[in-house]
Design a protein that fits this description.
The structure holds two protein chains of two kinds. Chain A is mainly alpha-helical. Chain A has helices spanning 2-11, 16-27, 30-46, 55-74, 104-112, 116-127, 132-139, 143-161. Chain A contains eight helices and no strands. Chain B has a seven-stranded antiparallel sheet with strand order 1-2-3-4-7-6-5. The chains are: A mainly alpha, B alpha+beta.
Amino acid sequence: MNGDRARFEQTVLPHLDAAYNLARWLTRNDHDADDVLQEAMLRAYRHFAGLRGEARPWLLAVVRNACWSWLQANRPADVEPLDDGIADDSLPGPEAALARTLDRRLLNEAIAALPVQFREVLVLRELEDLSYRDIARVAGIPIGTVMSRLARARRLLAESLSVAAAPRLRVHK
Amino acid sequence: MKSDDGRALHAYVDGELDAASILELESRMAADPSLRAAYERLRDTSAAVRTQAEYFRAPAHLRAASRVAKRPALLAGAFAAVAAIAFATGLIVGRPGGDEGFASEAVAAHVRANLSGRLIDVASSDQHTVKPWFSARLPFSPAVADFSPAGFELAGGRLDFVGGEPVAVMVYKRRQHLIDVYVGRAPASAGVTTERGLTKDGFNVEQFSAAGLRYYVVSDLNRNELADFVGLLRKSGGA
């Protein structure tokens, strides 16, 4: 029993920041991320015996599911199914070139404004550096869907941050 | 550009493309400036998120709670220690208007809140914020006052469960000390009682009832200052 606890502390707790970062991006506020993560960590401990393979994607899957349960109960509009059956690997067009100096606040707001299905793959890919295969496992979706959602996330993000989307910065003609 | 270039470029940026496809894509990018530009936009977007987006690190109290959560023995030990304190001091025995379950649970709740770091649900020094927050969540509404002028700053409030019922916890700060005020409905028999304090192992507890509510004040603040605080609290609570 004590061995289990020690093993949990050694293998799972080092990924607490990653777990919190995901919960914080999915719930979009500190307080709820806190609640959801406490719940998720208890769940992780209870199911720790079932861990096979790497701890990080496993923990992130537990946290992701806890977040989705929370969203379904508290933000049902956020988790309505997306119509992403159509493969969409379109690229940001030339009009979506990023502004040269990027405002961090705007970037964070733009990520937060993405539909949660796109936001989670983006956060898992860019901030947690997970492979497509691990993202598929964490989010419970096929790899093809990981790729199309990531493509959509990047395109939406590039468009909302582009020079064209920042009229305040545009020079009058 | 080919129709599946989009997918290939994303995979290229993500390091998910196989070696043969990388060579093929790179040679085509060298020959096709628009493909090259599309790749650069993609790479920039990815890099912007990686380097500029907020990475939220777990707050210290969650780290501590995650350890505590996995150590029921440790937590049980803390509760046992608190129960022992409460019991040994006679906190429970022969207190007019007191309720042993409520008193010891209030102390245990105070320790639990400190251990887990969950001290405050609504952080505000504004009594007009804290009071309605309680009113919206509890069947009773304690008077909430800020005693900053006297050096007891209102830090916020939280909800807890003590003595089998929901209670309001008003949290005050005095220098480095926290003061938890547990407010619950008084049993019907209790009238206005006087406070009686006790000290043991760093915890001071004061209790009184007023206007149908009972108050348990738990802190590691010294007895004299805590008594001053309770005086202010009784005045604002209508005792």
